[in-house]
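Continuing the series of single-chain predictions for the mutant panel. This is the parent chain; the variants come on the following pages.
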Amino acid sequence: MLDTVRDPALFRQRESFLSGGAMDERVRVRPEILDSWRRSMSCAVNPQESGPEFVDINTDSRLTEAAVPIIDRAFETIESGTAALVLTDANGIVLRRWSSGGWLNRALGEPFAQAGYSLAEASVGTNAIGIVQETARPILIGGAEHYSDSFLPLVCAGCPIFHPISAKLIGILDVTCKVADTHTVLLPWVCKLAEEIQRCLLDRSSRSDQMLMDEYMRASRAPSRLPIICLNDRTIIATPSAARVVDGVNQAFLWEHVGRAIGKTGSETFDLPLTSGDAVTIHCRPICDDGKTVGAVVRLVDRPASRAPLARTTEMAARLESLGGQSAAWRFMCEELARGKELGIPLLLRGEPGTGKFTLAEATYPDNELVVVDAATAYVEDVAQWFGRLQRALDAAPPAVVVIRHLDVLEPRHKRVVSATIERHVDLGRKLILVTESIGPETVSHSAVDDFTGFAITVPALSDRQEDLPHILESLSMSLSGRPRRWRTDAIQAISRAEWPGNVRQLRNIVRGVINAHPAGDIGAKQLPVNLLTDTPRRNLARLERLEFNEIISALRRFNGNKVEVADYLQISRSTLYRKMKMFGLDLDRWAY
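Parent structure:
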């Protein structure tokens, strides 16, 4: 390897690859390097002018807390100006850099010296950090093995850093030096440092994380061999079979579902909706430490393959699904709506305020004119006049689709008249959609439903469609601003915990306000209204805790999330601030995985 980095033949191979010419089969390029060159080219990286992208991330994390003291000590043993150390997150974004003499800054350019810049292959082409990110394996590369010209004078050794509990890639440690200073000890040395960091992370891991791992080991040895997941609010460990089943399910949402279930009754069995629209039956039980729930063991007792999936009976059902997502509740409602339309009888849509009943009515008959008659106006104007408007709408030629809204507000005697009128026109082939509203799912009045002949369909509340939130937010963003916006996990989690009595209509108003206030960039928890965050702590708070919670939220807003300034302002230590934020569930990015 050390001879290869100086080999002129390798430089010629690189030039042939970059120019699209034929490569010399006699000159070997390591497969992992050639694969990286191809990935870099597919990302349109310019080898002459590649530059790292800046990503606004929090560079203070458990990884940096554990790694910085270890790397500080190691860097002191390096002869000044001969090498640099770089610590990145799992995505190749620089968290810290250790260098002296300025030689590396001059070689690579000033941005490489700053935290927050990405050294992933998609940004700067083939390098040790980028390859480790892709392969999760240590590697030493140098000279012409690099893709970008600015890296040609350098040798880099990179090693992955794994979470000691979940075994997930959480960071990359890299040592970089000039080709002339290359030594055989580079890769073993940086791997030894990575192992020290992992041991430190294990020592610092919370008692709850260690209990999680212990429970996982016990559960995975059980004779049932069912797919197993152990998780808490920041860590998830899964057997391969379980990981395949829940692939695509956000860990934060999984914990929300499980946390609610075990919070109510302890051990619980329920159906977990999957992103495919199917569902899997899971049994979960809490992991407790001195009476406090610190995690859960989840067993998948019924795989999706063993149950019949919901069939898309029509193109219409697929179109309706695109409005709201892929949750089991939403897909079932779409199938029912499509089935009811085929029967040719009035459709009776019922559900909580703001669930999108009228939007569904429009989507059910996209090619027909809709005439809306709102029963809420019957007692504002003369009732006889309102019945006259209804009669004219039903008798119109050519016939339109008549939507009668808010039927639940009518008095019983007037409902009977409307019902009789509807039945006469149904016999004439008229298309009708009847819409009733309820304050909650348990308060749908029997008289509001049973007085009318029709195919009853319940539109699910937003609280029953948590896994659809990413889709709904994306759809609302597009409709309100004309372009997609990225909603970060911490924002989606905060929204999922809030109460939404106004359902999608209420959420739409929140999204409109957020987009108007922040017309560009990703939308995270910091961009959400203060009252939304203050109303959604992770658990019910006592009065004193609520005051403390609100004060921390206010300070985080005031100092734009700078925890050093927040701690100073609140006159508490940073460790106390972190502990309280964790207790209240505020530092969402940190405990999402």
